[in-house]
UniProtKB/TrEMBL annotation, chains A, B:
It holds the Pfam family Pyridox_ox_2. This is Flavin-nucleotide-binding protein. It comes from Ciceribacter naphthalenivorans. It comes from the Bacteria. The lineage of its organism: Bacteria, Pseudomonadati, Pseudomonadota, Alphaproteobacteria, Hyphomicrobiales.
């Protein structure tokens, strides 16, 4: 959270410059953070001996840092230890775009690619804070109700942190771009929106009877778009100081 | 589609072996194809000068081949021309898993990582078939209604094909795995499902009045899970010979 007078935008370099359809690109922090914060799932690309890997994982953000975690034994995390370059991408599918020509079929989406060098979070205090963050960022207020982490759990978990060196947002949020000469064709065209929504909570059979869904999960309201919930959760998390 | 007596499973090598929580892993074609076919969006990882990139794109499948496409000018596609190694990953988020400890918080998901070497589809007949496939696979029956692709559109589009050399599925589809000694804690735990659903179609303002949503889009029924629609579309596509 301790970004002193941050620049409004991330730097633009040959690596992150949006080359195709650059009118769809953005580099400002607000746009980058909005795409990152409205998702729980990201994809991390890294290289081992020339071979690219693309691993899905949960991410969370503290200022200009991205975090993800996993088992201390995982292949991805063992290799990221060394500070190898990483590209962390978050994408949302928002709609299917159907045109009168094959060529103009498309999709509405929001995506962000973040570049940086990842490092293991091994400072005990930073790691403790990060492991609190991964729960608290998604479920603000929850960690106070949980039993404390046990030392062997902290040891078995590896946390990776990456300062965002460069980032770029790319998105499409528009109606179909049919050619004018195709407008009169008697074929339906338009956008079919898709949304990821919250379902009905399924209580674990091991929860004592009488324990109901807590107030801190009220934002996970059935039918609500996940994006909205996650943006709200991040705002609450930041407001309460993480 | 022309896979002669395919093996039931993709080969397992050090590259695709699921190392962590291997009870969550699978390599059989049916499981791999099920995850691939229920998504429109994938992430492609590739390496340029040692730097990993993770690019979101649409993919589609023909037998053991994966295809994606884009502008002939795109950075990703220009570099994939050379036959560089690629990891194409598809992930679905199915639920948030909330436990009585930070450690057992998790997510329900289905993911597949596919490894192979990508190549440009430049044979005119294969490219024509692929460009039909990218529409027809998602909207079976639609290409017959569209105006034909124009030569400059085909030229401006690059299609990449990759035979799946190795693949592995990893998933979690379970209730929370709380420790037995935490069962009595008076804290709610369970799964909050998330689902990506079809919304209400938005007709382009340039569609002539009187043209309604065609029968071939009936499967994109409002409120239906996108996964189910895409699985059904792929089955229809395969049944009608692509």
């Amino acid at each position: 959270m301790s970004v002193e007078t941050p620049e409004k935008s991330y730097p633009v370099t040959p690596r992150n410059r949006v080359k195709r359809l650059h009118e769809r690109g953005a580099y400002d922090r607000e746009a980058v953070h909005a795409v990152l914060d409205s998702a729980l799932l990201c994809h991390v690309a890294y290289v081992i001996d020339g071979q690219p890997f693309c691993t899905p994982t949960m991410h969370w953000r503290e200022g200009d840092w991205l975090y993800w975690h996993g088992s201390s034994a995982s292949r991805m995390l063992r290799h990221l230890k060394a500070g190898t370059p990483v590209c962390l991408t978050v994408s949302h599918l928002d709609g299917l775009v159907l045109a009168r020509s094959g060529f103009h079929h498309s999709a509405n989406y929001r995506s962000v690619m973040c570049f940086g060098k990842a490092r293991v979070v091994d400072d005990p205090e930073e790691k403790r804070k990060a492991l609190k963050g991964v729960v608290e960022r998604f479920y603000p207020g929850r960690t106070a109700q949980l039993r404390p982490d046990q030392p062997q759990e902290v040891k078995a978990t590896m946390v990776i942190g990456m300062p965002i060196a460069e980032a770029s947002v790319k998105l499409r949020a528009a109606q179909v771009g049919d050619d004018e000469e195709d407008f009169a064709l008697p074929v339906w065209a338009g956008v079919i929106p898709v949304t990821t929504v919250i379902g009905k909570p399924e209580t674990s059979p091991h929860v004592p009877s009488g324990v109901s869904i807590p107030e801190h999960l009220a934002l996970y309201d059935e039918g609500r778009p996940l994006d909205d919930v996650l943006i709200e959760a991040q705002a609450l998390y930041e407001r309460h100081g993480g």
